[in-house]
Design brief:
This protein has 89 residues and is of the alpha+beta class. The protein has one domain. The chain is 35% helix and 34% strand. It has three helices and six strands. The strands form two sheets. Strands 3-5-6-4 form a four-stranded mixed beta sheet. Strand 5 and strand 6 form a beta hairpin. The termini are close together. The mean pLDDT is 89.
Length: 89
């Protein structure tokens, strides 16, 4: 199924690797380093330029990744992902 990340950005849930809270995870230096490297590699997509609340890591199937920065709360994204999973069953 699909997960709406905001604006006009939608991903497939089968490619979803993780949904992360921006405030809680960026406290760790390793997370900040990961986001910095991803941005330098061109793997970061800003869904909205509002205050970011979460980032979503996805794979593209060919061992490449994309990191989506979104203003939607991680709890909301998680609820959306779970409800879509149950719709498939």
């Amino acid at each position: 199924m699909y997960l709406h990340l905001g604006q006009s950005t939608v991903i497939t849930t089968k490619n979803l690797l993780g949904i992360f809270d921006m405030d809680n995870t960026t406290v760790m230096k390793s997370t900040r380093d990961y986001l910095t490297k991803s941005e330098k590699d061109g793997d970061v997509i800003n869904v909205s330029y509002e205050l970011p609340k979460s980032f979503v890591v996805c794979t593209n199937g060919n061992n490449s990744k994309k990191v989506y920065i979104t203003q939607i709360a991680p709890s909301t994204l998680l609820k959306r992902a779970k409800s879509k999973q149950f719709d498939e069953l």
